[in-house]
Amino acid sequence: MVSQSYTINVVSVVQVPANVTFVTQPGNSVGGQILTGSPVIVQVTDNTGAAIPGANVTMTFSPPPPCSAATLSGTLTQPTNAQGQATFSDLSVDRGQLGYTLLAISANATAVSNPFTVNGFCATSSLSTPRELHTEVLLGTARC
């Protein structure tokens, strides 16, 4: 009987996120309500374009929001499904302002959404600070 030894190398290939893209963009919304256009869907692929399942995607503002008091709420980190898509169905912004953008991050890959508007109030430290999407009504003097 002849005995022979074998060496088996098991190599695990880990896909590294290289591309993040918005499949559906956030839409103009009202402060405190779920973003119009929801769910916001993000696609994650490697450098060959292959979908990466199980990659975590985190959503945040990009750059800091135009209303510094604004908060992005909802489930801010989601894993990608078998098709490499992360679905964010409950995102909301609590303060109004023009020009919000979202930043999707997976490992070192990022994507920035199209700008969108949130209608509502953005509190600032001074009433003399210009505000967007607000109207001014001049009241006459009352005479009895």
Notes on the protein architecture:
The chain has 144 residues and is mainly beta. The protein has one domain (19-119): Sandwich (Immunoglobulin-like). Helices cover 0% and strands 33% of the residues. The protein has no helices and twelve strands. A four-stranded antiparallel sheet has the order 6-4-10-11, with no helix packed on it. Strand 10 (102-106) and strand 11 (109-112) form a beta hairpin. The model is unreliable at 125-129 (pLDDT under 50).
Task: Tell me the layout of helices and strands.
Elements: E1 19-24, E2 29-30, E3 40-45, E4 56-61, E5 72-73, E6 77-79, E7 85-88, E8 92-93, E9 97-100, E10 102-106, E11 109-112, E12 116-119
Parallel strand pairs: 2-12
Antiparallel strand pairs: 1-3, 3-7, 4-6, 4-10, 5-8, 9-12, 10-11
For this entry, give a set of tags.
4-stranded antiparallel sheet
- Rg over C-alpha atoms, rounded to the nearest angstrom: 23 Å
What CATH calls the topology is Immunoglobulin-like
Helix content: under 10%
CATH superfamily: Velvet domain
**Distance separating the two termini:** 119 Å
Please list the strands of the largest sheet in the order they lie side by side: 6-4-10-11
Q: What's the number of domains?
A: 1
The CATH architecture can be given as Sandwich
Q: Looking at the structure, what is the overall shape?
A: rod-shaped
Structural class: mainly beta
Low-confidence stretches: 125-129
The CATH C-level class name: Mainly Beta
Run of helices and strands: EEEEEEEEEEEE
% residues in beta strands: 25-35%
Tally of helical segments: 0
